[in-house]
Model the fold of this input.
Amino acid sequence: MKKISCLLPLLFLLPLTASVMAAQLIDRPAPVCNLTALDGVPVDSLQALKGEVIYVDFWASWCPPCIQSFPFLTGLQQEYGERGLRVVGVNLDEKVADAEKFLSDYPAGFSIVADRSKQCAKDFDVIAMPSSYLIDREGMVRYIHRGFRPGETKALRQIVEQLLDYRP
Done:
């Protein structure tokens, strides 16, 4: 019992450590990722999209908030795509069939890629689903958002607009 009580304070530090690690991504170049289409064919890296504002969203079929986020992400792509926004959904499912079933039930109006090795998720320090990262036109991570709550969509839109309007 004494060993457990000694470890309890450390458990409360885990989320703080993860938050600090994610915060270290802010104002740094986005990690380089080797991603594939759902069928396993390699796709261009996120760095190939330099010059566009990229909304990277890590998701999985078992994630209820991901279901809620898809209409919002589709709306962002439709509304801001011509201004230079690219929404990229990065699937983390173990089985392609799970992702395909999800997409048949909840279609995506944005790019879908897969991170089968989970290395990209590790490099972005993904600790929750969904986890989103806004990357500016220069390839720098500017904002990190964990989870999806409909009440936060207005603020997310404002951040997207600010990044689209900014020209270095």
Notes: Strands lie at 53-59, 85-91, 111-114, 131-135, 141-146. Residues 1-20 have pLDDT under 50 and may be disordered.
